[in-house]
Amino acid sequence: xxxxxxxxxxxxxxxxxxxxxxxxxxxxxxxxxxxxxxxxxxxxxxxxxxxxxxxxxxxxxxxxxxxxxxxxxxxxxxxxxxxxxxxxxxxxxxxxxxxxxxxxxxxxxxxxxxxxxxxxxxxxxxxxxxxxxxxxxxxxxxxxxxxxxxxxxxxxxxxxxxxxxxxxxxxxxxxxxxxxxxxxxxxxxxxxxxxxxxxxxxxxxxxxxxxxxxxxxxxxxxxxxxxxxxxxxxxxxxxxxxxxxxxxxxxxxxxxxxxxxxxxxxxxxxxxxxxxxxxxxxxxxxxxxxxxxxxxxxxxxxxxxxxxxxxxxxxxxxxxxxxxxxxx
Length: 328
Known about the structure:
By secondary structure, the protein is α/β, with parallel strands linked by helices. The protein is built from eleven helices and twelve strands. β6, α6 (about 160-175) and β7 (about 180-190) form a beta-alpha-beta unit. α3 (about 70-80) runs parallel beside α4 (about 95-105).
């Protein structure tokens, strides 16, 4: 007969073994698919991805082309899907191109969430990112105030991305309240910052009347500012997007009036957390239209927030950023 004390010790040992057993299996892997993955914006997202992977003790990876190339991103998504990862997060460069791929992954039982740029007509489970319409409204208010209600505006964007369309809509709706402010040109930079540089140079060389330049993408703002500085063109309003080093330097120097900072770290971090939760607490069906269900276990949209950064708060923003970087 076993001694009661021995039984108690054995039970305690089993409990400790069970408690120390990790929740996550070694084969779990979450992959973020994007494009232009070498730019600073996506390096911040990679940091968020890695932080979540470290906390959850799961494998994570970010893949995609080094330049803006929607077809290459689609091919990378297909390759990722064929590897049967535990979950996929994707920033959608072209919603029409990637919708069938997202739907195919969902049909195969692979959870997919979108971050940064959405494919709202796809069967993705949720979108995690900026309220892009609100971001456009915020930028437009800066333009209207700086121009004092009158002037010509050129916008740099990439029309295929739904998030950028929403930003532009925020600008156009808000500037419509100021009839003497006109958006005279919308430039598709096609993911190439050189297009923004060259077009800004042409505008200045031809003395085209442009009072404000708006960048809806992270890579165009610094190029616009560089041209204005090179040509010593003062008095122009520049509203940029995101917080890479050159953009923040432009705000500090005054060549960029303001920029709208997003949270790619948070987007990627939350994407892994949500995909992990969906894996360990699966929904009854990935193909359910949760938008029609008032008891939906997944939100349609998670707003990670955005910050308007200008001369007034750039120092505080930089200090907070430095503190967070040091803590990693």
